[in-house]
Amino acid sequence: MTDPGPVYLDYAATTPLDPAVLAAMRPWLEGLAGNPASAHAVGRHAAAAVAQARARVAGALGASADEIVWTSGATEADNLAIKGAARHQHARGRGDHLVTLATEHRAVLASCEALEREGFTVTRVPPESDGGVSAGALAAALTARTVLVSVSAVNNETGVIPDLAAIAERVKGHGALLHVDAAQALGRVSLDVSGLPADLVSLSAHKCYGPQGVGALYVRRRPRVRLMPLLHGGGQEGGLRPGTVPVAQVVGMGAAVARCVRNAARDGRHLEALRGRLLAGLAEIGGVILNGRRDGSPHIVNVSFPGVHGAALAGLLDGLAVSAGSACAAAVPAPSHVLRAMGRPDALAHASLRLSLGGPTTAGEVDRAVAVIGAAVGHLRGFSPVWQRLAAGETIQSVYGTRTPLVSI
Amino acid sequence: MTGCGAIPLDPAVALTYGGAVAARFAAPAHAGRPDGTGWLSGEAGRVPAGVTVRIWLRGDTAGGVTAARFEAFGDPAVIAAADWLCDEIAGRPLTELGGLTARRISEALAIPAAHMDGTLVVEDALAAAAERLAAIGGRSGDDGGCGK
């Protein structure tokens, strides 16, 4: 019997390049791509391909092509959106305060920290124990000096989906700008800026079966949102992101985004079915804590295993490519800031797994993953004094020293 | 009272902790609460700190330790350390157990410095168990085993 290979359940980290996307990119990789800023025919040919890709990305958001700025990925898009908008607003005397969630991606939090070092103040709104944040809680953080609010469309660790419409209403009613990191949302959660008054939206190609190394930032033009660029050079991308536009990369992103939009309904049903199967399988293991909400994005499941040490669990997941809360190779792995913000004690945050599903995932792979995880957890609980206490009836809160309400799946 | 069977390991365990730790972590022969009576245990560590270990000892009338088992909540180094310790304990006089220190465990298993902390908890659990066994003369303890 041949080795079936590892089970890849880390689609929230990156997705495989779709063959159709590679086919679209190939002519621009193998031949002379041309510089889209060049005036000659070769350059104009490249510029036309870039324009088509820009239109495809814009179309996926309900935006106009001139509202899309190419970046190297979502991290750069987050940096450009947050620093660029905050610095511009501050320079015009509009304020120096930002609001974000304590559970945001590091690219958002680190951008905010950088602004704090420049004199801005930042409020990080804590989530509920299930990772959710109400629009009211976020609105309570707004002040007269708030210039920008940054919220993810889908949390990258837990899959939690905030009520963006309600949040946008409060933020826009307050007169602040709204940035949405939508890196995990494309093809999974609908996002239409013709209906949602977001000012800035970060996108990534490699999270939706496109190439790594390219992303985009939606920048609203009506009313116009102005940014201070992070980089300085040529006048590409309206001066917001100088540098030669990588034709193959953006063509790949355009093709990937178009694929996501085209397949969204089918992929959504597939992911929902697999997520249900995964949750049911994990529930069979027993004593498994859900880190997130059942109404979260269909591609992410985050769970903790009481009674099991995170590093030991990670060491027994041979053949599984998942994101473990305690990476085995780290000397002193830091627990997830997202799970900490949700009140998970460090020992439970370490003993967490994020399993993320994708279009190529099969029911058989989900079953194999559940079997491997179940065997590892059962093995470790078999000689765990912590599991002995839990099995004897002590509460998780008592054993782990926490007051956080925890929900089993 | 058999040891735990081997489960396939992520190759990162050997790279991170070393081959000796990986081998014992994959198949800890002395893991699990003991069967039968005549066992005493000592525990050390805290869940919030990420390590707890319980060492089980069974003594004889001559002041020796005839068998040892362990339960552990810890990283692969902790589990391997406790398993190695149980091998070393069996057949020794109670008075010699003090020589089985964290340093000796770490050296025996070549545990990298970044992962040695947990061996101190293993040493403390052994000391707690040995103290209890010594207090009753080394032979008539009974904390119960699996049936407790």
The mean pLDDT of chain B is 89
User: What is the mean predicted local confidence, pLDDT of chain A?
Assistant: 95
Roughly what fraction of the amino acids of chain B lie in strands? 15-25%
What is the SS-derived class of chain B? alpha+beta
Helicity of chain B, as a percent range: 25-40%
- Could you name the CATH topology of chain B? Sufe protein. Chain: A
How far do the termini of chain B sit from each other?
Answer: 14 Å
At the fourth CATH level, what is the homologous superfamily of the largest domain in chain A? Type I PLP-dependent aspartate aminotransferase-like (Major domain)
Protein name (chain A): Cysteine desulfurase IscS
Keywords (chain A): Iron, Iron-sulfur, Metal-binding, Pyridoxal phosphate, Transferase
Cofactor (chain A): pyridoxal 5'-phosphate
Family (chain A): Belongs to the class-V pyridoxal-phosphate-dependent aminotransferase family. NifS/IscS subfamily.
Task: Please supply descriptive tags for the structure shown above.
heterodimer; A: 409 residues; alpha/beta; Aspartate Aminotransferase, domain 2; Aspartate Aminotransferase, domain 1; 2 domains; 7-stranded mixed β-sheet; 4-stranded antiparallel β-sheet; B: 148 residues; Sufe protein. Chain: A; 3-stranded antiparallel β-sheet; 5 helices; 3 strands
Overview of the structural elements:
- The complex is a heterodimer of chains A (about 400) and B (about 150).
- Chain A has about 400 residues and is an alpha/beta fold.
- Chain A has two domains: about 20-260, 3-Layer(aba) Sandwich (Aspartate Aminotransferase, domain 2), CATH 3.40.640.10; about 265-400, Aspartate Aminotransferase, domain 1.
- Chain A has 13 helices and 13 strands.
- In chain A, α6 (about 165-175) links the parallel β5 and β6 (about 175-180).
- In chain A, α3 (about 75-90) runs parallel beside α4 and α7 (about 245-285) crosses α11 (about 365-380).
- Chain B is of the alpha+beta class and about 150 residues long.
- Chain B has one domain (about 10-135): Sufe protein. Chain: A (Alpha-Beta Complex), CATH 3.90.1010.
- Chain B contains five helices and three strands, in the order ααβββααα.
- Chain B has helices at about 10-15, 20-25, 75-90, 100-110, 115-135, and strands at about 40-45, 50-60, 65-75.
- Chain B has a three-stranded antiparallel beta sheet with strand order 1-2-3.
- The interface of A and B includes residues 328 and 350 of A.
- Chain A: It holds the Pfam family Aminotran_5.
- Chain A: Belongs to the class-V pyridoxal-phosphate-dependent aminotransferase family. NifS/IscS subfamily.
